[in-house]
Design a protein that fits this description.
Rossmann fold, 9 helices, 46% helix
């Protein structure tokens, strides 16, 4: 088991990619703090983990609110001890034409998608630095590499997370804590099924001719959370079926 004895927090673990990451980490021996604003969803995630023999705690929290993040971290530490792995996955991805974006919508997505990972990292990084070991994995988006129609506000937030990841990786490169990114492409999740995207048509434009599975994103995250990635920081593991092959 690659993560045996480690405590991991996965935000946005109530469904889709976050659920898949939480389940994969638990199968690899991690004690998982599964966080989500959707209490019912995160309870289902933890039920699946425990039925499979894993260890997890469901925490209902707004992962963009400092006080709730602090409380959620305290609950997780009380259950499993110091947090060594953080996956910043929680986020929203609305489609809105540029001139239809309101100031409130802009501020909301910045708070959830950009400020949230900053606050979660700030809460958990001190213990990682004290231990001389830690992993912070940020789920960004292939749209930061290619753009996305009708998602200026979303792509802006994910581009901000990209920059934050690289800056933290450089600042703490000698600490034993690594900071990396996984930008999914088009992945079959409930959120994307509800979006105005023809996934089957889009899949035909991809080199692999298919959309991704949440479990494939989880596999990339497992590598970045494991000892195998100990000399990897500030990097992007593009998990998108060949949609983008650059180094950004």
């Amino acid at each position: 088991m690659q993560l045996a004895g480690k405590t991991a927090v996965v935000t946005g673990a109530g469904s889709g990619i976050g659920r898949a990451i939480a389940e994969r980490f638990a199968r690899e021996g991690a004690n998982v703090g599964a966080w989500d604003l959707n209490g019912d969803g995160v309870a289902e995630t933890v039920e699946a983990i425990t039925k499979a023999g894993g260890k997890a705690i469901a925490v209902t929290a707004d992962c963009s609110d400092a006080a709730q993040i602090r409380d959620a971290a305290e609950q997780t530490r009380a259950a499993f001890g110091p947090i060594a792995i953080l996956v910043n996955n929680a986020g929203i991805a609305p489609f809105v034409p540029f001139f239809d974006i309101t100031d409130d919508q802009w501020e909301q997505i910045m708070r959830i998608n950009l400020k949230g990972p900053y606050l979660c990292t700030r809460e958990m990084l001190p213990a990682m630095l004290d231990a001389g070991w830690g992993r912070v994995i940020n789920i960004t988006s292939s749209s930061t590499q290619s753009g996305s129609n009708g998602q200026v506000h979303y792509v802006s937030t994910k581009g901000g997370v990209l920059g934050m990841t690289k800056a933290l990786a450089l600042e703490y490169a000698a600490s034993g804590v690594t900071f990396n990114m996984v930008p999914p492409g088009v992945v079959d999740t409930p959120a994307l099924r509800a979006a105005p995207v023809d996934m089957e048509a889009f899949a035909k434009t991809l080199p692999m001719k298919r959309i991704g599975r949440p479990e494939e994103i989880a596999g990339a995250c497992l590598f970045l959370a494991s000892e195998d990635s100990s000399y990897v920081t500030g990097q992007t593991i593009s998990t998108n079926g060949g949609r983008y092959m650059g180094s950004a």
